[in-house]
Amino acid sequence: MNPSVNEYRRALRPFQFVSCMELREVLGKRATDVVRLLELMEEVPLDSIYYHTHSFYLRHSYAQTLYPNDFATWVALYAHDRVLGEQLGVLDPFAYLSLDALRQEIITIIDDHLSSHPAVYRAMSGEPFDFIRSHVIEAPLDRQAWTLSEFRNAVREVEAGALYFHLCEARMRKTTGFDDFSHWLSARDGLSMPELAAQVQRVVRLGLNLEGMRARIVALCDAELMAHGGTA
Predict the structure, then answer these.
(1) In which residue ranges of the chain is pLDDT below 70?
(2) How far is CA 53 from the centre of its chain?
(3) Are the C-beta atoms of residues 72 and 88 closer than 8 Å to each other?
(4) Domain match, 169 and 91 both
(5) pLDDT recorded at residue 178
(6) What's the domain range around 28?
(7) 56 falls within a domain
(8) What pLDDT does residue 109 have?
(9) Does some domain include residue 138?
(10) DSSP 8-class letter at 95
(11) How far is CA 78 from the centre of its chain?
(12) For residues 99 and 72, what is the distance between their CA atoms, to the nearest angstrom?
């Protein structure tokens, strides 16, 4: 019988789980049509771009929405432009190395779309778009994992804020774009399991909500444990 994964995989450095919370601030900048949205997009602070794209995942941890950022949602549902909403909705905010690069891409998409429809988008929407900024505040948890079984159980149980911090926000903190889970799973002083790490990293890029990511990662850990005669 194969040795259990816990018997031959124990990290030299534990995974320390950290949660987070948002501090929000309404900026007093409001768009009532797409043209004004574009104008304000060029002047609002980058923290606001972060709030309306990245932290959308934290505010909608259970919902699998058709438009996975605030800009796409508002454009499609309130400015009644489904085409532009879909163009903005396919953006992966974590694929950009900086918030400024993400802002420029959003501006380019809107500007190109408006150039193709110059007379249509002065109509006021049913509900204005209010720009908000946010700051993510870390909140360390009393939860560590040394083994894959401990890691799996913690991922299943921790609050959504911890999933967001390690899976989403981490990709802005790390120049490689890795989430914290993949980084620890592949690291030599972590579990040194690059294949599992690669599978987890692919999950993060599927466009799932946080609970969807949680379920997939737990299932991957279960499969690894079962393959080596271990249990959760």
Answers:
(1) 1-8, 61-65, 118-125, 174-177, 230-232
(2) 8
(3) yes
(4) no
(5) 80
(6) 21-133
(7) yes
(8) 97
(9) no
(10) G
(11) 24
(12) 17
User: 118 and 179 share a domain?
Assistant: no
| Judgement on whether residues 11 and 85 belong to the same structural domain of the protein | no
Question: Residue 26 to residues 67, 125, 133, 135, 216: CA-CA distances in angstroms?
Answer: 22, 20, 7, 12, 35
Which residue intervals of 117-231 are DSSP H helices? Answer: 148-157, 160-163, 170-173, 180-186, 194-204, 210-227
The reported pLDDT for the residue numbered 218 is: 98
Distance of CA 229 to the CA centre of its chain: 33
Return the pLDDT at 119. 60
Q: Which of 133, 153, 182 is the last residue of a domain?
A: 133
The answer to whether the beta carbons of residues 53 and 69 sit under 8 Å apart is yes
Tell me if residue 206 falls in helix, strand or coil: coil
Q: What is the predicted pLDDT for the residue at 118?
A: 67
Same domain for 110 and 156?
no
Amino acid identity, residue 47? D
73 and 153 together in one domain: no
* Structural domain contains residue 232: no
What DSSP string runs through 5-69? HHHH---SSPEEEEEEEEEEEEEEEEESSHHHHHHHHTTS-HHHHHHHHTTHHHHTSS---SS-S
**Structural domains in the chain (count):** 2
Same domain, yes or no, for 25 and 115?
yes
Instruction: Please give the pLDDT value at position 62.
Output: 60
Distances (CA, A) of 55 to 142, 153, 174, 197: 24, 25, 17, 23
The mean predicted confidence, pLDDT, of the chain is 87
Quick one: which of 39, 46, 85, 44 has its CA closest to 66?
A: 85
